[in-house]
C-alpha cells in the first residue's frame, strides 16, 4: 500500500519488545507454516473480502482448492443441509425478475467519509431517542433502523419530523426494483440458486479469482478487474444489506495478521517498525469488530479497515513479528486503544478531534513527529496561520523528511475544484449540490496541530462549509488536512484556482508508518515507537482484564 523502506539489519527480536512483556514472549512458539490454533486470545474474525458481489451482472468468483485438495460446499435445501465436494466452483450472478415491483427504501440520517464520524453521529441520534444502524453502501451512513422504521408511513413521518426540527442531512433513499441479483453456481451439470454457501478446504486454504468491473471516477474510466487471492480459514457467501452479496472469510486473528502487516507497513521495513505495526494491527482488529454488524461480518479488507490480502503474499519478517508478539495488544487503562495509523503525518500528528467527531482519546494527541525538540506546540500553536506557514517551511529534523509525501504542492483550477465538490455533494444529497461555479475557497479554522477543521466554499448558490476529514473527500488535491491555500491567478489577474500546499498522507492520527521507519533505524524498539505515538499506553498480553471496546 505504501512505499517500502529498504532492508535493514536483522534486529534481535527481544530488542523490539518492552521488558515488561519479555518474559511472556520467551514462552511463545515461533510461527509454524501449518498455522495457529484457536485459543481465547486467537479468536476467529469475519472479514468481508468481496463486499458487494452482484453489483454488476458480469461479476464472477471462482473458488479453487490447492492442488491435491478439494472444496467442501454446504448449503441449505428444503430437506436440510446438503454437502458436495469439488476441486473448484464458479459463482455467478443472474438477474431475478420480481413478480411485482419492490420498493426498497431507508431513511439515511447522515453520510460520512469514515466509520469514526458515522459512529459519533449514530450516538448522537441514539441520544435523541432514534434507533439507528451503521452501514457502508459506499460512503459510511447512519440509517434509521430498518426493523423499527419498517413501513413507508413511519419512515416518512420520521423524515418529516426531523425536517421540522431543522435537520438538513437526513433523506429518504428510495428505489423501485423490478429485478434483483441472484447468485448461482453450476456443479455436475446442475444449477444451484442459493443466497448462502459455506466453503471449506482440507488444507485450510482457498484460492479466489474475482472478476468484476470498477466504476468510472472523475479521473479514470470504467475498467475490468481480475485478481487472485488465497485465504486461510473458510469462506461464506451471504446476502448483505444492499441487495447484493458478500464473500466473508472467517480466519483466526493471528492468520489474519499475516495478510495485513506486510501490506500495511511494507514487507521490507525495519523490523522494529514491523513489530509496532503488528501490535497495532492486532489491536485495531479486535477493537473494531462491530463495524459491519449490519451485514453480519466484522471487518473489511481495504483502507476502510486494514488492507488484508489473505495468504497471497506473506513474508518471513512479518511472520516472525506476528509469532513473537502473539497476543500482544496496546491498551490505555485496560482498554484496547483506538489503534490508528497513517502513511505520513507531515511532521506533526493530529489529535482524534482534529479529524473526526466524538470523544477525545487522551493517548491520541498531537505530537511533533521528530526525535528532537524542534518545535514546541504549547508555545507556538499551529492554529495561528503565521506559525503554521513557518512550520511548513521546516524541512529537516523530522522522522519523515526523506519521504516524498512529507511536503507537497498540488494546484487545482476552480473548475476542477468545483467538479470534485459537486460529485461529493451529490453523493450526500446536499441541497446545494447543483451549483454551477465556485468563486472562492478559504480555510476558516485550523487546529493547534495545524489541521484544517473547516473550509468555506463560495458558489453561485451560496456558501458551503466542509469540515475535518470530509475535506479529503470533497476536494481532490489534498492528501491530508495539513495544508494551506495559495491563490493562482490568470494573466488578467482574475482567480484561476488554488495550490494546496501541505504535508503528510492520510488522516495523520496515531502512528506515522514512515515515521516509524526512522525511529526503528535510530535503534528504537517496537514498544518505544508505540509509546512515542501513543503516550500513556501499555503493551500487554490479551486477557480477560482487557476491554475490547466501550460505548
From TrEMBL:
The keyword Repeat does not apply. Keywords: Signal. The keyword Signal applies. GO terms for cellular component: outer membrane-bounded periplasmic space. Residues 1-37 form the signal peptide. Coiled coil: none annotated. GO terms for biological process: sporulation resulting in formation of a cellular spore. Residues 243-332 form the Sporulation stage II protein D amidase enhancer LytB N-terminal domain. InterPro entries: Bact_Sporulation_Assoc (IPR051922), SpoIID/LytB (IPR013486), SpoIID/LytB_N (IPR013693). NCBIfam families: SpoIID_LytB. This is SpoIID/LytB domain protein. It comes from Phormidium nigroviride PCC 7112.
